[in-house]
Amino acid sequence: MQPSFAELAKMFDHSLLQPVLTDTELEAGCKLALEYRVASVCIKPYAVPLAKEILQGSDVLVGTVIGFPHGGHTTEIKIAESEKAIHDGAVELDMVVNIGKVLSGDWKYVAQDIEGVTKTAHQAGAKVKVIFENCFLKDEHKIELCKICGDLHVDWVKTSTGYGESGATDHDLALMRKYSPPHVQVKAAGGVRTYERVLAVRALGVTRVGATATKIILDECRAKLGA
Description:
This protein is an alpha/beta fold and 227 residues long. Helices cover 48% and strands 17% of the residues.
């Protein structure tokens, strides 16, 4: 059954993370998210209060990033970032794993890092999306991360930051869905730029999409659906 425009819009986390975005552009991005009634904005941490103010009273959620974009912050700093973000009004946190530790096979460290942010978020009623940055990883790394995230009951596993060498591939999305338990959702980020691509990743089990081209994609969706 073909999804409605509203259902597709609620798959989108409108990404407002580019380093060059001005305050005026961040404000405009929040208003665009409000106009299209997407799932959330994913905004730079310092602008969380701005997003909260603009989106207050709407069903568009406020999200931000933790340990972004390279994941190399200490766990203590990631937890402090999470606490500050939640205090400022974020209800969804997209955290980056420590990529070097993943590649080193230090799974105890990786699990404790994810657990620290997840516990902090869940205790405050917020949700967590764990970013793998798949372009740097082998399948065995991705599979192990899915298992860890399942055990820790994170809310989403996410392909990428959008700032790595590549974004969401069909192979990675299928793999993440296969090796994640049902209670963990999958988010695609990077390279989802058309209506057809949104439908394709949805068919693979994706429930959220991180995008900067939200308006272009959803305008195309509206035209295709006659909404």
